[in-house]
Structures are given as C-alpha cells and as structure tokens.
Amino acid sequence: MLSVDLSARKLGLRPGIPVAKAQALYPDLVLMDADPEGDRLGLEKLALWFQHRIAPIVAVDAPDGLVLDTTGADHLHGGELPMLKDIVHRMAGAGFRAKAVVADTWGAAHALARYGRLAIAVVPSDKTPSALADLPVEALRLPPTIIEGLATLGVSRIGPLAAMPRAPLALRFGPDIARRLDQAFGRMGEAIVPVRPVNPVEVSRNFAEPIGAAETIAKYIGKLVPLLCQGLDERGQGVRRLDLLLHRVDSRTEAIRVATAMPVRDVKRLTRLLCEKIETINPGFGIERMVLIASLAEPMDRRQTVSSLIAEEETDVSDLIDTLANRVGMQALYRFAPVESDLPERSFCRVSAMAPEETKDWPEHWPRPTRLLARPEPVQAMAELPDQPPLFFIWRGVRRKVKCADGPERVFGEWWKNDAELTIARDYFRVEDTSGERFWLYRAGDGEHGETGSQGWFLHGIFG
Amino acid sequence: MTAETHKKPGLETLRAAISRLEGHNDRRRTVLPFGVREIDARLPGGGLALGALHEVAGGGNDALHSAAAGQFCAGIAARTRGKVLWIVTRQDVFAPSLKQVGLSARRTIFVEASSDVDVLACFEEGLRHGGLGAVVAEVARLSMTASRRLQLAAETSGSLGIAIRRWRRQTDAADFGQPTASVTRWRVSVLPSVPLPVPGVGRPRWLLELIRARAGECADFEVEACDGKGRLSLPATLADGSDQEAAWTRRARA
C-alpha cells in the first residue's frame, strides 16, 4: 500500500504493508489503484493555483509537496505566519491535510515540512542548523540506497551526519550527501524552476553581460513592458498580474510580482509599478535573463470616455489603488459598505476599493459616533430602571457625570443568525458629560427581563 | 473675501512678491471656503488652501480618540469633489458617521497601513496622484522632513492633504508643539452642546482653534459641528437660538 487515509491509520494500517495482509485484517477495506500520473497532474494544478494566489515562483516537489519562493510575497498576505495559516486552512477546506514551513532553503523547508513536529512553522535564518539537527536522514532527499548505507553505519540523524568528515562519506556514497547537506544548510544554491501557466503572454531578454545596477534593470523593464503590451493588445487583453523573473548567473531566480485592480495595458503605468519594486531585488553577481510574464490576463474592452458636457468625468484612481495595493496588500485597501443589521458592529462590511458602488445606504434617523470601539468596553454606571439613561459612569478610571442624554434606541439580537441571540436586547444611549464629551453607551438587556442580557453597561463609541 | 478688501495695497504687493519667490506664481491658489464668513476671513485666500497640507488634532481626551477631529476632517473632505483616501493604522472609523457629515462611503477608500512609515508613504503617494478630492491620514509623529515632503507633493498636484494627529498616550500629544511644514494647524475640542428646552443632546459644538496659519494669524472660534453636508456654522448669540431665517436663506443658496 502506498498511502492510507486517516481512519485507516487509526485502525493501525501504515503505508508499506502488503495489500493481502491489510485485506486479511479488514476484509471490507476500500482499495483504490494508485494513479501516479493523476497525482502528478493534480499537484501541477495545485502548483498553478498557488502561483495564482501566493507567489510567482512555485514548483512541484514530487511526489507529495510544493515548493514556493515567497521572498517579497509574504507581506501581501499579512506576513509569513498568517500566510502559512491561510494556506493550511485553505487546503483543509479542500479536504487535504497539509503542513507548511518557511525556511531559508528548499532543503530545510522540505525536511521540516515532512519530518518536523509542527504543522505550521517559520524557521528564523539562524535557527536552520539546530532545527535540522534532530531530523532523520531521510529528510535530506537522498536515494534509498544511501539511506540504507547510512543506517548500516549507524547514522540516523542529520546533526551527526553533518558533523562527520566529508571525504570518507564521498568516497563511499558519492557526492550526493555533501550536496544535499549544503543545499539544506544554504551553502549551495538550488534553483526552483517554476511551473508556468498555460500559454501566457511572455517576453524575455537575454544579456550577453550580466546586469546588476538598478538603473539598468529599470531601463530593460522599460524595454520589455511595451513588447508585452503589444502582445496583450493583439489578444485584446489587459494584465491583472505581472511577474518579472530575473535569472541570476548563480542559477537563482529573483521575482517581482505586481497586481492590478483592473485589467491594465498601459505601458507607463506597468513600468512604474515594476520599477517601484526594483529595490527588493538582490541581483547578486548579475542577472543574465529577464522574463516578463502576464501570469493573469483578462479581456479588456476599450471604453469610451465621457464626452458629454453635463456628465463630469470621474477621475480614474485605479492606478493609485494599484500602487498602494502593491505596497500594503490588497486586503488593506477597502471601502465600507452597508449591511442590513441594527447591531452597529455588523452594520458595515469591507468591500474591495474598486467594487461597484452599492445603492443601499445606512439609515440616518439617529446620530452615529465617529469612532466605534473594536469591542465594547464595560463601564460602571448607575441608572434608573427600566429605560433611563445613566446618571454617571466610570470609564477607564474616570468618573463622568451625565448632563444630558438621548435614548434609548433598542436593538434586538438577530435570532435568525444565532439561536443564542433570540432574547438579546441592547438599549443605546447617546450621553454628554459635564465637560461636553459625548459617548455612545448601551445596556446589555432591556432593564426589565433578566434573559435579555446581563444588564451591564458598555461604552461602544465616541461622538465628535 | 471681505477682509481682503480692507487690506493695505502695499502688503498685497509684498505678498504677491513672496508668493512668486515661493514658486507658485503660475497658478492661482485655489481654496476651499468653510462658508462661514468669520472663519474664512481669518484664512489667507479666504478658505482652506487646496494643494497644501493641513494638520488637525483633537484637544483634551480627543487627542487620543480624534472623534471631533475626525468628524471635522470628514466634513472638509465631504465638501471636496472626487474620491477621498483615508489612511489609518488602526481602523475605528464608524462609516455611518461619515455619511452623516455628507461623506459618502462610496467615495471613501480606506488604507490600513501597518506602520507610521507606511502611512506617510501612502499619504505622499495619494497626494502626488492629484486625482483625489482629499487625502486624510491619521499619524502620530510627523517630522519636519516628512511634512515638507507631503507639502511638496500636495503643492505639485494641487490635492488637499489633511493629517489627523492622533496619539496613543496623552503625554505624546505634546508633540503637537513641534514645527512642521503644514500650511495650517487646527485643534478641535468638544464643547457642551447647545442646551435644548427638552431633555436630550443638542447640536454638538466645538472649540475650533486655528493654532497656526502660514501668512495668517491665529484665531479661535466656537462653532456648531458639521451638518449633513459637512458645513460648520457659528452659533447665534441671540437669546432665542439661531437666526432661522438667515440660516434658511444661506442653506437655500448653498
């Protein structure tokens, strides 16, 4: 058997035991033929999806893994750890149990993802040797014959193996062990050959002499982008995501990825977006090849500009949105849109900055505070029951006497969303203290019935 | 406006000469008037200069919350045309309240930057673009160098930049005394609302202090908070409340 699922594992079945034996133990076992070709294709598809979502350089790490170069891409997903969590979560959503590790090298990440204890881990640069030391030698991507040979020698962990003298090992097992160790510890480079989307618009340029200066890179970006736009023009497409791959002389690949909110075919704008990222490139000893790929392109229609005298042309800010999104990430750029809910914290949602404009709006019959606290803060208050505003309240250690107040505005729980909210009610008051500061307070409960809430007071917002 | 007329002609020519030296002689500086004569008269040009950086901070506890300062800036942004970019580090703006001073959620694009450095970078980017009605950013520290960059970016594109100075701690608010390159500097503090003959909270009032104005003088105003279209107004000194007729004609004209 090549692999078993979780419930089979619970029964004590492991990959490697003969099928006949497993069937003898559990006659009603569901068996499926291995389909290595199908697995490979599936993995490639997944790699393309990752390329689409996460980072431009993705390769298949056969038979059961993917390797991503996330340099310069993690900040778009909120950092390395949130990115890994997101990946594992998404894979779980699709029915796969995945482990994800960020490490300095392909070798180290490969080893830790398969043999490490944690499902999600980010290994800092200086911790790679100590993290690898305890792992079995199988983690090094060595051929089985060498593993067996090492087992005969009594070497089972990477730590002791790395400490052994190289020459006798090379003499006995060939150069593989030293190479794999160096690759894992980052002493030797290892190129990741990325998967490629089907038939993209792509332009490239080879250099006889490696280039390295920022101005030179900018100059050649300026030459590649018009060619790419020409290619896009022929297909009637605009680019949504653009990858610039820079192949270095030491066979490493640097990548820049820029994304746009709407399909773009504007030479100046794309050049600018790419040039802003030049500072993130490490040219090393020089770049010998530049490839510009429109990894995500969408049909783009020509649009008529407003020519009427009355309608005023709305200034297009999508180029600014792109510039900002490539700096802070697309999810950090948003508009608020109304949601039909009386609960203040649910009355809005975030939509993409370029989302079509909604027609709904918030009702305007009550004043709303400028600032809404992320979570309501409990305050001590004294109020007459059932529906009078508080006479005073203590918030953050300051006692404030209420001079005047508006309310109550009663808000009921949304029982159609959550059973527990069936009886919940809140009474909102807008109060002004003696110094003139205005606050939005609410009582959890209607002041009469215990089941409507704790009857405690909370501060939810601050008015201007 | 009115104040311009009884200024000395000698002073005016000198101003024009200085303005030429400063390098914006080619283009008439446009302003966004508040629509309140008393305030506009105190501002050079008769309003809030477009293509310039302005600073707003809350007074007292509002230095931390920036509720009044935020409302004031939203009111200004509401009276501009085009999209508004609002840059924050921690998001606590309640969108329905912007609507209530006339700044539609459809016009307001929020940027949630992770650090003050990112805020300033996005701020500058937004000002440089020139296609936005206003760029509002909530920052704590604003150095002379940073503000000069922002001011230059605003000058070249003609965008209105508003920096809401907002601090985490009350002690940090002393930072507001440090000089910056902004054209005007405002402090907005809440005042007790207009008393009503019935129980309830009246229209909010603010103490609006113009702490610094380039080529202008300091002033402070007691104003009624922004209305549904982002306009301020001066509370009437009449015993019977505001002069309804005057307010009505003004509103009808606007």
- The topology string of helices and strands of chain A comes to HHHEEHEHEHHHHHEHEEHEHEEEEEEEE
Instruction: State the domain count of chain A.
Output: 4
Number of helices of chain A: 13
The topology string of helices and strands of chain B comes to HHEHEEHHEHEHEHEEEEH
What's the helical proportion of residues of chain B? 25-40%
Estimate the strand proportion of chain A. Answer: 25-35%
Spatial separation of the terminal alpha carbons of chain A: 69 Å
The CATH class of chain B turns out to be Alpha Beta
Strand content of chain B: 15-25%
What best-fitting shape of chain B do the alpha-carbon axes yield? Answer: globular
Total beta-strand segments of chain A: 16
Largest sheet of chain A: 6 strands, antiparallel, barrel
Which two chains touch over the largest interface?
A-B, 51 and 57 residues
Radius of gyration of chain A (Å) = 30 Å
Structural class of the helices, strands and pairings of chain B? alpha/beta
Please indicate the count of domains of chain B: 1
- Which structural class is indicated by helix and strand composition of chain A? alpha+beta
The third-level CATH topology of chain B is Rossmann fold
Provide the residue-averaged pLDDT of chain B.
Answer: 86
What's the architecture of chain B in CATH terms?
3-Layer(aba) Sandwich
If strands are numbered along the chain, what order do they take across the biggest sheet of chain B? Answer: 5-4-6-7-3-8-9-10
Helix and strand topology:
The complex is a heterodimer of chains A (464) and B (254).
Chain A: H1 6-10, H2 19-25, H3 36-53, E1 57-61, E2 65-69, H4 80-93, E3 100-102, H5 106-115, E4 120-122, H6 128-133, H7 144-153, H8 158-163, H9 166-173, H10 176-185, E5 201-211, H11 214-235, E6 237-248, E7 253-264, H12 267-275, E8 287-299, H13 318-328, E9 333-338, E10 348-352, E11 371-383, E12 390-395, E13 398-412, E14 425-433, E15 438-444, E16 457-462
Parallel strand pairs in A: 3-4
Antiparallel strand pairs in A: 1-2, 5-8, 6-7, 6-8, 9-10, 11-12, 11-16, 12-13, 13-14, 14-15, 15-16
Helix pairs in contact in A: 5-10, 11-12
Chain B: H1 2-5, H2 9-22, E1 31-32, H3 37-42, E2 48-49, E3 52-58, H4 62-65, H5 67-78, E4 84-88, H6 95-99, E5 108-112, H7 116-129, E6 134-139, H8 144-157, E7 160-165, E8 184-191, E9 205-213, E10 219-224, H9 244-253
Parallel strand pairs in B: 3-7, 3-8, 4-5, 4-6, 6-7
Antiparallel strand pairs in B: 1-2, 8-9, 9-10
Helix pairs in contact in B: 7-8
